[in-house]
Amino acid sequence: MALIVQKYGGTSVGTVDRIEKIAHKIDAFRDKGDDLVVVVSAMSGETNRLLELAEAVHPHVRGRELDVLLSTGEQVTIALLSMALNRLGCPARSYTGSQVHILTDNVFNKARIRTIEQEKIRADIERGCVVVVAGFQGVDEQGNITTLGRGGSDTTAVALAAALKADECQIYTDVEGVYTTDPRVVGEARRLDRITFEEMLEMASLGSKVLQIRSVEFAGKYNVPLRVLSSFVEGPGTLITLEDEHMEDALISGIAFSRDEAQLTITGVPDHPGVAYRIIGAVSDLNVEVDMIVQNVGADDTTDFTFTVHRNDYERSLAGLQTAATELNAREVRGDTKIAKVSLVGVGMRSHAGIASKMFGALGKEGINILMISTSEIKISVIIQEKYLELAVRALHDAFELARHPKDRVDTANP
Amino acid sequence: MALIVQKYGGTSVGTVDRIEKIAHKIDAFRDKGDDLVVVVSAMSGETNRLLELAEAVHPHVRGRELDVLLSTGEQVTIALLSMALNRLGCPARSYTGSQVHILTDNVFNKARIRTIEQEKIRADIERGCVVVVAGFQGVDEQGNITTLGRGGSDTTAVALAAALKADECQIYTDVEGVYTTDPRVVGEARRLDRITFEEMLEMASLGSKVLQIRSVEFAGKYNVPLRVLSSFVEGPGTLITLEDEHMEDALISGIAFSRDEAQLTITGVPDHPGVAYRIIGAVSDLNVEVDMIVQNVGADDTTDFTFTVHRNDYERSLAGLQTAATELNAREVRGDTKIAKVSLVGVGMRSHAGIASKMFGALGKEGINILMISTSEIKISVIIQEKYLELAVRALHDAFELARHPKDRVDTANP
């Protein structure tokens, strides 16, 4: 008999009808004999409704009271789901983050989980109950309500699975799993049976929005097998685990992309030690996160810097950079918001050369110019003009034969 | 410097605009130097919205999960009001019933308060904070969320005032105080400056819906001065206290009435010991509360019984009574739902004869037939045909000169 933690997101519990469907699903699961702990989000739209109320009484409000407000969203769902289960004759008990004592630090609006009390959950499970826990929320040492930030329900589920040493943590979403790339861009995109935590992290941070990054980190850290499945369509989903012998023998697992980038360039900077710090420092002092950074050698003892930031941070960053440019007596500052990032991700590329050249070749064949390149152990990212984004993703998906299972690919040789 | 507990009901916090108005009101109060603990209800409509959701997933649901659901209503309000106060620069902190540890028994949906922890509230008050507490809710010894039943926010406020030994508990509503009778029926109805707990209990239980009965009982028991005021109109409201020398020197304080009654009669019952028990028992076994009971001596060793029940319980009661009638070999069972109850209430009538005869005279002059009479120390109630209700209330209001202040009344003599 396995212990499974399941998490249903806002869309899955978005209406009373859907809550009833999920209750039937859970009841059927119970009949198979597994023990279940279920984590739910607020009904879709509810968090935004609450945020609008908050905006109306106190624009841009943050802090303690916002968490008191937002945490009601999940509390409504746990009650309704437990009622629906009880009506089906399936014993169920709901718990808020505070009741099951999901202890967090005291950083309101984006708290981090420290510990979870298991006592009540274990006792309920032993009595044959389905335990329904509110995602996204916890309580600090002083008893204040905290929330984990958007998407935090995934983290709650993984943290519960880790604490209870569950056999699997299943994240139910509106997609059928993790795909080789976004199926809306590439029709033949293929659902992956398995993917490693590392790859999933790269996919998630590069714009693939299936799972919240922190929950993947957490699952990796505590080695909680994590499965992404659809709430609406039956299927095995995608299992996210440590790398093992069952892994697909692939060089590349998937292609992630993001349109949220903007590029900034400063040219003709004196090539002295400390200059990089002064340039990037000027931007990060504004609380802007810098993503890719490239430095080129320029002419006559000067150098050129290019880096990317989130598109929302572009204007602020440009202003900060211009100030720095004046101080550094740089030649020019320029920027571009019409760019996009495309990345190949795969643990297999660690042991294989030639991935980068094949990638650049495929893009070149389509006439797509590469503006920046950045690589890590399991990923190669390029910045291109935004208008080429779909073309680039399709070209790479074809070139690396991602629509086929790895064992059927032409050039997937064993190392 | 006084410590005041204020309670704002659902209508007073029904919209974001109203919450902001209440915040300004509270902020102005603070500026006068008093310490404030504020209890709020759910925004009007919210509890019904939540009940509809519950009905949709589990019709007629009761018990633990309903309280988890309903308690979110007040939690939203405490957060929004605290945000609004903080925005005005008025420090405020919100607490759910569970956070401030309003310990109740474990009767879900209608729990009773046992104790309240004062520590956090006192500490916040000392730091100059307005403490905002969710009404209507508490927590049992196992940490389960409980609710006090409809109108329970009044009880929360009074219980907090009692625990904190507050100088006054102010209940803000949509009326300007307690009136001599319903101003919608009698245009000249007069706001009372003061009324005793006892009188208020009679007024409340007789259909005057200003305050929840349990909160008045609670205030009387712990001698918490209770003031009813309007959220929307400035004014002193009505103070509900122990009887004292400041009391209006009135025989009659007010006229309460109710249309929710139905009358049942059983005639020709053998006049034996135990018969009353068998008749009333047959009805109360159905969990019906019996209000007025009158027994008349009938002809030839039989007796007639008449009693009233809530109109909603009429059909069930009639069926029960008919069964009892067959067993008792009674002559006849009949009933009437077109009746109403009118009551004179006043602590002054204890020491004055002649109130009843004056009442009956005033009704007789208008041609209103009295169907039943019942009296207590501070109240006389009559049952009349419903169609005469408004006429009767106006006639009595005139006869006892309630529109005038007691010292200006013609026949208000000192005893």
Q: Care to describe what's here?
A:
The structure is a homodimer of 415-residue chains. The first copy, chain A, has two domains: 3-247, Acetylglutamate kinase-like (Carbamate kinase, 3-Layer(aba) Sandwich); 249-400, VC0802-like (2-Layer Sandwich). The first copy, chain A, starts with a strand and ends in a 16-residue tail after the last helix. In chain A, the strands form five sheets. Chain A has an eight-stranded mixed beta sheet with strand order 3-6-2-1-9-11-12-10, sandwiched between helices. A four-stranded antiparallel beta sheet of chain A has the order 13-18-20-19, sandwiched between helices. Chain A has a four-stranded antiparallel beta sheet with strand order 15-16-14-17, with helices on one face. By secondary structure, the first copy, chain A, is an alpha/beta fold. Chain A is globular, with a radius of gyration of 24 Å. In chain A, α10 (355-365) packs across α11 (389-399). The mean pLDDT of chain A is 90. Helix content of chain A is 33%, strand content 26%. The first copy, chain A, contains eleven helices and 20 strands. Chains A, B: ATP binds at residues 7-10, 173-174, 179, 184, 209-210. Chains A, B: Belongs to the aspartokinase family. Chains A, B: This is Aspartokinase. Chains A, B: Keywords: Amino-acid biosynthesis, ATP-binding, Kinase, Lysine biosynthesis, Nucleotide-binding, Transferase. Chains A, B: It comes from Acidihalobacter ferrooxydans.
